[in-house]
Amino acid sequence: MPSLMLVGGVELGGTKIRVARGSDDGRIEASETFQTTGPEPSFARILNFFRGGPPISALGVGAFGPVAVRPSDSDYGRLRGTPKPGWRDFDIAAAAGALGVPVALDTDVSAAGRGEAALGALAGLDCGIYLTVGTGIGGALVAHGQPLPGASHAEMGHVSLVRTPGDDFGSVCPWHANCAEGLASGPAIERRFGANLGALPDDHPGHALIAGYLGQLLASLVLVAAPNRIVIGGGVSKAPGLHARAHAALLAGLNGYGFYPEAGRPGFVVPPALGDDAGLAGALLMAGAEARRR
Ligand SMILES: [Zn+2]
């Protein structure tokens, strides 16, 4: 087995940034977390972390999106149309490239999907889905350890849902009146209930409402991709019982359509085995792959 390389990973989130140094098999050795501010001060802190320690062979970045992740894109590395102040059109690849080592860029969700596929709940599976439910809703379809390449990254959180009767809540998505992110993301939950899902009492109807919407999304993903397992991470997923409720809602959505029994088994919808480290682990794996490719 080839010896391990020391590489760097960045998880660039909308509210916080995590940086890590670790081995190219995805193991984190040292990490730091800080708040996301504007792009320049944020990258100054990121570069400072890596310049202040032993040299790394490559850097993997998992970023919030939408972001141009294909090297053949004319706007490769740039954030596309984010509402986050100051970040629109910011060139992440160029900013990370200031470190002078090869850079691999993907979405934060794809990075987390890679991490779970290599070391976590999606390991050894033909096909898995990593879904994050937090500030937004996003997902990655991972086949044999790799997020599916396409014309861009997927945006599973913007799939339209059927509203629960009586739910006239105004979507928080600026583009869609009925998408999953607009109805069931962290900001939607905060605006609906004035609290996060985990803070609601166990018998609060909000649990069934949100799980119902997530279950609808899961049913669509199952019908499209027939994954072996679905991981749900992100802040909203930390509400106790969320995975079991969403799994039950998924099965209710399929309504007995038994085209494959795997979806009905316990453990089909699970939290990330790597917890909050899935994205950083994936970023380290991306860095390792990029260093070997050069
Ligand atoms: Zn939307």
UniProtKB/TrEMBL annotation:
Keywords, A to Z, come to:
Magnesium, Metal-binding, Zinc
Which Pfam families does the entry link to? ROK
PROSITE patterns on file: ROK
Q: What is its EC number?
A: 2.7.1.4
**Keyword Metal-binding appears in the UniProt entry:** yes
Give one GO molecular function term: fructokinase activity
Enzyme class at the top of the EC tree: transferase
**Tagged with keyword Transmembrane helix:** no
This protein's name: fructokinase
Protein species of origin:
Sphingomonas horti
The lineage, from the top, is: Bacteria, Pseudomonadati, Pseudomonadota, Alphaproteobacteria, Sphingomonadales
